[in-house]
Amino acid sequence: MDTKTCIADAFAGESQANRKYKSFSEAAADEGYDHVAKLFRATSAAEEIHARRLLRVGGYIGTTVANLEAGMAGELHETNEMYPSFIKIAEAEGRQDALITFEHAMKAEAAHADLYKQALAAVKAGRDFEVKTVYLCPVCGNIEINKTSDRCPICGIPGASFKIIE
């Protein structure tokens, strides 16, 4: 194993811990353990610090053009390869809960790739991606620009439920 592999493995672990501890904090808060929730939030933030530092030392952060290209490639991989294979497995095992989660994520990833493609075209033309407001569906992760649909086209929740991203 070399240092680059170590960095990649450490980044994966730190990123997963960050999200896991964030979710653990929400569960603790829901159960009324506010101080335990705070501890999990702090640990989640610490894991994020580690992950961000690993991205830098691993050379994974490039120019905006390179980052958009990498982001688009990742989203397309998830849309075209990863989630379709996961969906087949969940169907075969009768895991409707996982199937719905995978389908929602796959469709949202396709939307993300399209938005990255639009942003990439703008940046390559020497301008910023022109948006006033970015909205995020809190259920499926769909992103809509400047306005929301009446209902999320992926999961169907009301557009009024979308969160504004600053």
TrEMBL record:
GO terms for molecular function: metal ion binding; NADH peroxidase activity. InterPro entries: Ferritin-like, Ferritin-like_diiron, Ferritin-like_SF, Rbr2/Nigerythrin, Rr_diiron-bd_dom. The keyword Oxidoreductase applies. Keywords: Oxidoreductase, Peroxidase. Its EC number is 1.11.1.1. Pfam families: Rubrerythrin (PF02915). Residues 1-127 form the Ferritin-like diiron domain. The keyword Oxidoreductase applies. It is an enzyme of class 1 (oxidoreductase). This is Rubrerythrin-2. It comes from Methanorbis rubei.
